Every structure is written in structure tokens, then in C-alpha cells.
């Protein structure tokens, strides 16, 4: 990573290709012919399906989910037209759906506290051109991350926080989210609890990294409790934030082997490596519109 | 596993469901509208798509591959009709394709030598109802496996083999393959080399397990050579057999960690665990028609 | 695995080597000079240290644990002498200790219910000569496992069980444990709860396999609950049984990746593979005297 | 990671503890009593063994290796004395040995080319206090890494390199190695070949990261070749550099799963994650004196 350096810019040709890439997510009652309807619609609108993944919760009377990535010449010009034409189809089949475009990069905010390893990983992926987002602001209740964030030309806001001033802190945070027009809020080891109001404001748009293999060790001090229990693997979990602490829909999890010689300090060191990669994967999949939340679970189309 | 016991039989209802399951594999030049054509065809023939996976080797001028699993009432009666109707579509789009039916179980033969761990794993999966095949014959150049094989009611043929009598051994083997109408030949640590003629006879229908992480340690003595080289992981590779030794299309690979304390005997012990699961996975995917061979590679639709 | 076949017998030379192998486990207050005392004792008694692992819970005022494997000519003749001489050393340094001999194979009993995959794995390892134990009896509340167990020449006892007759069932089981002089009791998916009295009778000598990544999903139905929670990895845990359900000292854990497509049936299939290998490892380490239980944790010397 | 910031400094108390930590590596012909001799020596010199690992290449007539980490009050004052006293013991038992002290931090140089991910990982670990070394200089044939390196206060030297000027480049590099008194040279994706003279100069002190699972794909373009071969796992290997290209003693390896959809660009992205962690582990173990090179293999005492 070099500081004061722009994110790797794709070549003009690559950009041209990406601006003609679209993604359609659909959820509807399962019945025969859905794939035919969707693929025929896209074909009639000059689109070529590049990637398609589907899932049915139950062959009989289940819910059908599909993610289609397609290429269409002059997509930016035609997309409004396509979306309009899709309305009747959606209504006829009772579809919930979402059109998104590679050219419309999501705008991300990162919240962080003292530990910066998850922030660093995201910045590193972003600089490599591997996170398809604009990181528009970093907010922290500590000053530690300021130098690296500002060196990359990203606005950094220091907002001290504690439970007594939570309401006023969140107002300030929401103000910044609005100002920066944030689509996705990433909690990269932000160690403050968010109020139900705040969470509702950003429903299904907050991704957290929890430093345990959920549902083991919900809540505070997971490494300390993993040590006490004598587990032989420790893990980390990225999930969407809901108002049930650490119980939101899980996006990704991973583990590493530990043994009796690993004290809590070591568990935290090993854990940092897991947290970094688990959060980065979850964020990447969200940005690529690969995740559908269904109830308290996620469908992740790899 | 209990001996003298039939494979777990699915309930009548399950069997009914399975007999209406079909799978269509297609390979053709990529162009817009292929998914639409296929899904519309299936819908028009009363079929509901249950699972679909696709892959395009290149967005422009590439080759398109798709696997579709579908459900259709009375499939066994209608399938001939469907296949007939598909011919025009296939011709129009230059498709190679394959229709298969869950009800038509593939017939497998297993070749084994002295080491029976891979055979045992396959028999275990098969008895659990997790390998969707009829194991119609086991052939070995040793007698070790006879008791367990025969206790399961599977014919066992002992055919001693060495390089001087290869031709006549293979004639006998081919005779048995024909007699038992074998669709898939599994080399479960069969330690004899097959002649080009034999391999050609069963092209893309022989799965082997090689006891190394290919392309490292091609040929004989891979564990000995892994030990000499001081690698920190050992592996196993399942692949289709071609006439280039250990260079056929790879289906699955896996590894385990080892260290300086592991001598060759230990490497072999650890390796047996890897070989067992890697071969079982490859066989299962083949039986579920999840694999397309393209050039010297496989596309595996999980 | 071939039926009606003896466990692979080591060559006479190997047996000769093994009968001169001993293992010494020591636990004592940590202080300088312990390793010197122990290694000098062994050297003075003609023993050569082959493998040694140690662990100190805390560099200052901690507890010291060591496992030493050694070779001594004529060990079987000299061992009583050595053990006698060691008493003074142990007293002087406040040591708890255990001498064991490779030649004295532990006697194992296996309890199993309807699902036989863990039993099968143990029998397979045992037949390969990889489990250094005599399996002296298998007890089950179902008849499923009888044919395979008896075909290997191992006594099989069918004892139907349910919570109303628990006391009398356990009396019968304890009677058999005594009769067969059992050192280790392996619960290979035995689905009955054991009473506190029974557990106390075999303290630190019962190994269980729990079909979840503990402490997640303690108790019944872990795969069902893992499915409900939408976890992305499932696991299994082998542990010593105590009178706190699923809370005994953990010996080994492992996980496999799953995704939204895996229903409960699939989770169980995948889980069976994890359970098999996790239980087999734990049993092997116990038999090799590699495990020291300390509080509610294990120290496992690999 | 924050720029312009010093590496996390351990508290005075921690430093005090570390300055009394020593490590002794010994290699000698195996015979009874070696552990006794060494542990008694350390005890007599007031040292308490904290961690000890040993390995014997063969129980009979093998070579014995041991790593002992110990604590001794006033070690920095006593160490010369201890080393002197050890000479007779070493001579009597034909030992090769090495005393090292946690207080004497090794001095590392990093060579890097255009790809900075491995460099970044090392800097990140170092800033977290997890790499026990002084990074005294970074040398590159590109300017990319200069800003981040200099922002951390580490000297950066740009030395353009190509095969025509190799001799003069290496003279300059050796000059800098001497000037900065470098103990360890880390090739963090340095894409130039080193001459035999250069390698000899730093025997067993150069660690490289090769971007494949050696011995598969020795030499250039490993990801391209992995793609061509259709492997299902890709890997990375850290090893000591010798004058046989990519054939030096392996320190650590790891792999990640890939599939048919991963093109070469993707393999490289996935590979970067493996390279980062594999190199960081190898460097850490070297710095902690956990590695003994024996022939073309490593013994790594974890």
C-alpha cells in the first residue's frame, strides 16, 4: 500500500465493460417458469447472462431466489427503460427485486475504535481495487486511525462516545451518514453499542465483525471466554446488525486452530487474522450484491 | 456398516420424487439467449427447474456450460418425448448435451489392490445411501477385499496382474465390464498401470485417486518423495484417467498439515484419510452429473 | 477392512521395540530444575528420551506439566524398580505422575446407538493397527451394530435403554465394564444420558463425541439448531464426560463449511464425517497418554 | 497501522522480562542422557526452562535436535559466563549449538518489487509488535513502496535491477547489507534472480516466498500454470533460498480452494492472501529461533 496514492484505476476498456454490467436480484414464490420469464425478459432487452445462481427454499411451495449478472451494450442509457418494462413481470409473479449497476458504486462508511486491523485490511483491499466501493468517511471514537485514513484522502471524523452521550453521538453520526450519502456502514471493531433507533435507520445495511464463532460466546469478552472454556478452535463471524445483540443474519465465519499454550493475548493475535479476512469477505459479497437476507439467515451466491 | 444388509432403501415417496428428477447438461458456443431457450423449453415441457449452475469460459466468444436439475411429473413416461423435441434446439444452437435421470442409477465397478481404505469408504457411503449408484462388481489383483465385498452381496473377482500378462488381464477385465454393463470404473488405489487401449475403452469414465497433491509428485512413491522434499502439507488428487500418467483432468484435491516428525509411515496414514474423502467426493459428483470435462480441466457444478 | 480377520499384528521386532517403550506424565508446581531432575532420573535408569513435551501454565508460580516417552532395554523387567525409585523424587517435588507402558494396552468399551459411523471409524482404525487398544466389548441399545462387531470377534451386548429403566441398565453396563476390565469408555454417538453415579464411576475415562462445535448448540438437536441459526460452518467436539452436560474438558474439535443450500439432512451427512475423525483423534491421543486434564481443560501433547 | 508512529513499545516490566530470556539450539548425535546434560547445565546456571522441544531423526544412531527457551535473572550479565562454561559440554557431546537472546533483536532487510502485499503484511505485524526484529532497510527495484516505508521511518533504497547489471546491483545491495548489519534478508516478492555468490554470502539467512505449493510449479508463472493445469487448490511456500531455484528448505506452506470460475487474475488475488500469511509465519519462526535447517529440510519447533 502506498500512501497519498489513488486507488488503482481500471483501464478505460475495463471501465467501459463494467458500465455495461448489471445485476438483478429476485425473490418470489417458487413456481415453474420463473427462470424462463426472467431469462427471456433479459434476452428481449439485449442482455447476455454472464452469471446466474438460484436457490429454492423448498421444491414445493417454497420461495425462489435468483441472482443474475448480465451484460448489455449501452446499459446506462437503457436501464431506465428496462426497469420500467420489468414492473409488470414483477407484479404478475409477486416478485421482490433489485436492479443494481456496477457503475453505481456503493458508498461505504467505516466505524472503528482503537483496534485498526480490520480497517487496515479493508483499506488494503480497496487500494488494490478489490473492494468495489467508495469509502467516503471513517468515524472513530479514538484518534488512532486518523493518520492512515487522512493520508489516503478519506475524511476522518473523531466522535468520542460513551453510553451517557449515546443519543447525541448517534445524531452526529447519522448527520454524517446523510451528508456523505452512505449506502453501507461497516463496523470494523467499533466497540460501542448502537441503539435500536440507529440500527433501524440502516436496516440490512450495517455489517459487523464479531470476534467469536457465533453463536458461541455472544457478547463481551469472547476470547477470554474461549480461553476459559478451553476450545481448540477460535473463530470470527461477520453478520448484519439487528437489534438482537450478535444475533443478526450471519454472512461469513471462519476459524483457526489453537491449543493449550495459547493464552488470551495469543488468542487475540490469532483472532485478528480471522477477523480481518472474514469481514473483508462479507463486505465484498455485499458490495457485489451477492447476499439476500431471508428471515434471520443469508443466502450468499458465490 | 452392518454386513449382509441391503443398502438403505428410500421410502416409496422419496423414490417417487426421485423418479421425476432429471438433469440436463449442455455445452455450446456462448451467445445471448441460451438460458432463455433452455428454461423456456423445460417450462413448456412441464418441468420446474430445481437447481441450475452455469459457466462461461469467456464473456466474449466463449463456450457456455450449464447444468439444470428439474422436476417433472411422469418424467419416465415423458422423457423420450422431451429428448426428441430437444433435438432441433440442440442443432440450432450447436449444443453438445446429455439428459440423465435420477431413476437410472449408474453402474459402478471398483478396482482395488491390497490397500482397502478407499474401497471401504465408498462401500460405507454407499450403504448410507449417499452414493447414488449400483456397485455391480469389485475386481482386485489381491484377495484381501473379498470377505467384506462378498458379505455385502457384491460379486468379487480376483484377477492376478503384473506387467507380463497385462494384455490378457485387461481382456478379462473388459469382459467383466461388459458383462456387468459398467458405466463408471473407480480405481480405489489399484496399483497396476492400464494400457492406452483400456483407457480409450472407458474414456472420461475412469476415476483414479492419486496419493499426492498433483502436479507435485507425479508417478510412483509420492509419500516417499514428499518426505524427501520436506513439504509441510501432503495431499491427494482424484482425476479422470487419460493416457498421460497422473495428468488427466483433476476433479478434487485436498491436503493435510504434516511436520518434520512425520516419517513416511505417518505420511501414509495421514494420506489415507485424505485419499478416502477426496475419492468419495469425486465419485459422488460424477454420479450426480455435476462434472463436465473440458480439455484437460473439469467444470464441477457444486 | 476385511471381516473375520485379526487386527494387523506387528512384526516380532516391532513388538520387541514397543515393549521397551514407556511414558511418564508429571504434573507439579513449576520451579527451576524439574526437567533436570526428571531427565537425570531417566538417564540413571538406562532410559533414552525419545519424545518430550512440556507446558507451564505460568512462568511464575505456575503448574508444570510434562510428558516424556522413553526407551529402555528390558523395561518390562525393570519398570517396578524404576517406579519404586521414583517415589522419593515425586514426594520431594510434590508431583502427581503416571507411568504407562506401550505393552500394557488399554482395554476399551464402545457404546453406540443406531448411528454406527463413529463406531465404524474406530473399528477401521483399530484394524489398521492405528488404535493402540483392545476393544473388549461393544454395548448398544439397538441391534444394528451386532453383525459387524461380532464378525470382528468382539463381544456385542444389546441392552435396551430408556429413561424409566436407567438405573437397572446402568447396573448391567457397569457389571460388563467390570467383567471386561474396561479402562476407557467411548461414547460413539450413544444417545442415552448417563447418571451422575455412572459418570463418577469412570471419571476422566469416558470420551464422548458431541455433534456441534461446543459451546455452541449444547444439548439436543444441534444440527437442527445450526440450520435455524444459519451458521456457515458446522462442527463436532470430542470431550471427557462430566456431570455438566456437554461441558466436560474439550479434547478436539473440527469444522466443515456449509451454505444456505444445506438442509438438516445434509448438515447431518457432513457432520458425520467431522464426528468420525474428531472422535478417532481424541481416542488415539487418550490411548497414547497424550492428554492431561487440568480443571475443565485439556493439555494435549501432540 | 498508523503512519509516523513508533512500533508498539513494550512496558518496562515486559522489557525486563524479555532481557532475561534466552534460547539454546543444539544439534548432536543422539544418545541417552543429552536432555539430562543440557537441563542440568541450565539449572546449575540458575536458569528455568520455559519451553522445550526436541526431535530425533531416528531412535537409533540418529541426530538429536533440541530448542530450549529459558529464563535467568541477570542473563545479560551472566550470558558470557554461561557460553564459556558450555564449550566443554558441547565438545564432549559433539554438539553444534547456538545461544541467542531475546534482547538481541535480529536486524532484517526486506527486498520487494512492484507488488507490496507481503511487505505490507510484514510492516503491519511489526507495528503490532508481533515481529521481534528491527527492520533496518527496504530495498526495491521499483519506487512503489517508498512512501509507506519512509513514513514509518525506515530507510528505503531504490536500486533498479535487470539481468544485465546484476553484478553491480548485487554489489550495491551487499554494501547496504553490510552497512545496515543485516542478519536476515526477506524476499517479499522480489522478482529478480540472485546470483550464487550473493546467496552464498547470506546462506540460511534469506527467506523467500514462492507463489505456488512447491514442488508444483517451480519457476516463473506459477498461477498461470496452475490455471492451465486446472488444480482445485492453490498455494504458497516460504523457504530458505539456496542456489537451486525454488528448491531450498521449505519452512511453511498453505493453500486455498479455487474452482473452474477462477481465472488467472482471481488466482493471483487469492494467492496474495496466502503469500502474505505464509511469509509472515516463516519470518516470525526464524526470528524466534524456532527453525533448524537439516540437509534440505527444516525442523520447525512450534
Automatic annotation (TrEMBL), chains A, B, C, D:
<keyword id="KW-0554">One-carbon metabolism</keyword>
<dbReference type="InterPro" id="IPR002912">
    <property type="entry name" value="ACT_dom"/>
</dbReference>
<dbReference type="InterPro" id="IPR004810">
    <property type="entry name" value="PurU"/>
</dbReference>
<dbReference type="InterPro" id="IPR041729">
    <property type="entry name" value="Formyl-FH4-Hydrolase_C"/>
</dbReference>
<dbReference type="Pfam" id="PF01842">
    <property type="entry name" value="ACT"/>
</dbReference>
<protein>
    <recommendedName>
        <fullName>Formyltetrahydrofolate deformylase</fullName>
        <ecNumber>3.5.1.10</ecNumber>
    </recommendedName>
</protein>
<dbReference type="GO" id="GO:0006730">
    <property type="term" value="P:one-carbon metabolic process"/>
</dbReference>
<dbReference type="GO" id="GO:0006189">
    <property type="term" value="P:'de novo' IMP biosynthetic process"/>
</dbReference>
<keyword id="KW-0378">Hydrolase</keyword>
<dbReference type="InterPro" id="IPR036477">
    <property type="entry name" value="Formyl_transf_N_sf"/>
</dbReference>
<comment type="function">
    <text>Catalyzes the hydrolysis of 10-formyltetrahydrofolate (formyl-FH4) to formate and tetrahydrofolate (FH4).</text>
</comment>
<dbReference type="InterPro" id="IPR045865">
    <property type="entry name" value="ACT-like_dom_sf"/>
</dbReference>
<dbReference type="InterPro" id="IPR002376">
    <property type="entry name" value="Formyl_transf_N"/>
</dbReference>
<dbReference type="GO" id="GO:0008864">
    <property type="term" value="F:formyltetrahydrofolate deformylase activity"/>
</dbReference>
<dbReference type="Pfam" id="PF00551">
    <property type="entry name" value="Formyl_trans_N"/>
</dbReference>
<dbReference type="InterPro" id="IPR044074">
    <property type="entry name" value="PurU_ACT"/>
</dbReference>
<comment type="pathway">
    <text>Purine metabolism; IMP biosynthesis via de novo pathway; formate from 10-formyl-5,6,7,8-tetrahydrofolate: step 1/1.</text>
</comment>
<feature type="active site">
    <location>
        <position position="246"/>
    </location>
</feature>
<feature type="domain" description="ACT">
    <location>
        <begin position="23"/>
        <end position="102"/>
    </location>
</feature>
<comment type="similarity">
    <text>Belongs to the PurU family.</text>
</comment>
<keyword id="KW-0658">Purine biosynthesis</keyword>
Amino acid at each position: 500500500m502506498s500512501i497519498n496514492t489513488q486507488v488503482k484505476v481500471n483501464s478505460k476498456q475495463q471501465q467501459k465493460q463494467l458500465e455495461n454490467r448489471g445485476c438483478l436480484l429476485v425473490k418470489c414464490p417458487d413456481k415453474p417458469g420463473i427462470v424462463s420469464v426472467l431469462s427471456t425478459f433479459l434476452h428481449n432487452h439485449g442482455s447476455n447472462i454472464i452469471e446466474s445462481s438460484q436457490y429454492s427454499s423448498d421444491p414445493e411451495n417454497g420461495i425462489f431466489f435468483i441472482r443474475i449478472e448480465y451484460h448489455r451494450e449501452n446499459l446506462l442509457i437503457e436501464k431506465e427503460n428496462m426497469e420500467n418494462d420489468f414492473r409488470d413481470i414483477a407484479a404478475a409473479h409477486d416478485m421482490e427485486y433489485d436492479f443494481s449497476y456496477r457503475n453505481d458504486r456503493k458508498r461505504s462508511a467505516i466505524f472503528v475504535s482503537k483496534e485498526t486491523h480490520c480497517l487496515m485490511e479493508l483499506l488494503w483491499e480497496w487500494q488494490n481495487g478489490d473492494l468495489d466501493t467508495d469509502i467516503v468517511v471513517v468515524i472513530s471514537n479514538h484518534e488512532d486511525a486518523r493518520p492512515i485514513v487522512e493520508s489516503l484522502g478519506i475524511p476522518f471524523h473523531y466522535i468520542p462516545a460513551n453510553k451517557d452521550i449515546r443519543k447525541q453521538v448517534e445524531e452526529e453520526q447519522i448527520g454524517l451518514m446523510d451528508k456523505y450519502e452512505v449506502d453501507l456502514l461497516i463496523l470494523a471493531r467499533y466497540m460501542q453499542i448502537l441503539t435500536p433507533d440507529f440500527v433501524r435507520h440502516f436496516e440490512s445495511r450495517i455489517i459487523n465483525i464479531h470476534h467469536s464463532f457465533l453463536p458461541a460466546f455472544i457478547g463481551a469478552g469472547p476470547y477470554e471466554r474461549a480461553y476459559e472454556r478451553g476450545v481448540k478452535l477460535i473463530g470470527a463471524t461477520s453478520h448484519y446488525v439487528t437489534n438482537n445483540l450478535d444475533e443478526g443474519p450471519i454472512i461469513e465465519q471462519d476459524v483457526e486452530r489453537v491449543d493449550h499454550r495459547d493464552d488470551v493475548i495469543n488468542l487475540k493475535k490469532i483472532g485478528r487474522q480471522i477477523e480481518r479476512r472474514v469481514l473483508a469477505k462479507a463486505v465484498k459479497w455485499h458490495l457485489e450484491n451477492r447476499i439476500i437476507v431471508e428471515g434471520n439467515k443469508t443466502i450468499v451466491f458465490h
